[in-house]
Design goal:
single chain, lipopolysaccharide transport protein A fold, 15-stranded antiparallel beta sheet, 15 strands, globular
Length: 201
């Protein structure tokens, strides 16, 4: 297992390939055998997927590509090529998680931090909604062809559906516990690399 730590971003995967001339960093999972894919659940597969953490956001998928602006030596964009999954702990609730997943994720950086994330193709979302008094309104469950997220210092700031979504805002108590999670959800906070010493554990 390889890992890295850059300012507020860290990540890990089976292999990390770096091309400094092109400014590319690829986080790659070892290839799963056909038999493994048949018996493993989506949660088990996601536990082995490459993953990065940026602030409060956890981003994973079959492969993650980070692109740098070589001339200016700064992060420019990221691509999750398949099975993209974003998890963010809901800071106002207890053990609540905002989740977005789709086939592909495209991200843009600003000043070294993720500024926007586009979840593309078969996008699904579970998001906890609050009023101005930080009282929960309900849980938004929706699907759309694409979902754009604008990020702020503490995580997701705005959500825009590129096409008309299909979904509903549910009262929190209306949903069973398992209905509050998208298929394939895994919380990998305990793996997060927070300091240089973690790179050697």
């Amino acid at each position: 297992m390889s890992s890295f730590l850059k300012k507020n971003m860290s990540g890990k995967s089976d292999f990390i390939l770096i091309n400094e001339n092109k400014g590319l960093t690829r986080l790659i999972r070892k290839k799963l055998e056909k038999k493994e894919l048949q018996i493993m659940s989506q949660e088990q597969i996601n536990m082995t997927n490459p993953i990065i953490w940026d602030g409060n956001s956890q981003i994973s998928g079959d492969e993650i590509i980070l692109k740098e602006n070589v001339k200016e030596n700064r992060l420019d964009s990221l691509i999750v090529t398949n099975n993209g999954f974003i998890v963010e702990r809901d800071t106002l609730g207890v053990d609540n998680y905002n989740q977005i997943k789709g086939i592909r994720i495209l991200g843009k950086f600003l000043n070294g931090k993720i500024k926007s994330l586009m979840v593309d193709q078969n996008a699904e979302i579970i998001y906890h909604m609050y009023n101005d008094n930080n009282e929960i309104i309900g849980i938004d469950k929706a699907v759309s062809s694409s979902i754009l997220m604008i990020m702020a210092e503490n995580g997701i700031d705005k959500i825009r559906f590129i096409t008309e979504p299909e979904g509903m805002l549910y009262p929190e108590d209306y949903l069973e516990e398992n209905e509050k999670f998208l298929e394939g959800f895994v919380n990998r906070e305990n793996e997060k690399i927070k300091k240089k010493l973690d790179l050697f554990n």
